[in-house]
Amino acid sequence: MRAFTGIPIPNFPLYAEISKDMERLTGKNGKIVGAENLHVTLQFHGEISMGEAEELWKNMKFPEFRFKVQGKGISHFPEGTEKARILFINIFSQELNEIAFMNRWEQSFHCTLCRLKKPEKINELEMKYKETVFFNFTVERIVMFSSELTGSGPIYREILSHQLI
Fold it and tell me: Which residues of 145-161 are buried (b: 16+ CB within 10 A; e: fewer)?
């Protein structure tokens, strides 16, 4: 199974507005992530078995207490190019930086909004939402998800969860 560790996003008040803008800009070239699937990606693990997932989970270091996360501005992957394949919201949190350091993860925290079939310039969208704060929330749990890619979009399932106090 494809798996990643992330944080469910409990509330995204500007989702309807930004999804309309993405649809207008990308048309049929993009697959917009549905509101029910929005999450902060902490670490992508790739193709692993359930046993490997459980072993990874057992060895992860988690914070004890809840902490704040902010989603602000839009960027794209691949970085350093004019044309985007993936549109995402930038994630800010000192605690996430510490979790990444403890677990030796790359620090590319993001909330994927849209995947593009063909690379496309999205400067207009990035400029419009450059300073926009999309969400601020308190992280209550960290989750490992399985990710099944389908023609109508990904299906995410929670397979492991760690509750913060």
Answer: bbbeeeeeebebeeebe
Q: What is the mean pLDDT of each run of 10 residues along the chain (165 residues)?
A: 96 92 86 91 96 97 96 92 92 94 90 90 90 96 92 86 97
Cα 40 from Cα 63, distance rounded (Å): 16
Is residue 54 within 8 A of residue 12, CB to CB? The reply is: no
The total number of residues written for the chain in this structure: 165
pTM: 0.92
The domain 2-163 is placed in CATH, from the list 1.10.565.10, 2.40.50.320, 3.40.50.2000, 3.90.1140.10, at 3.90.1140.10
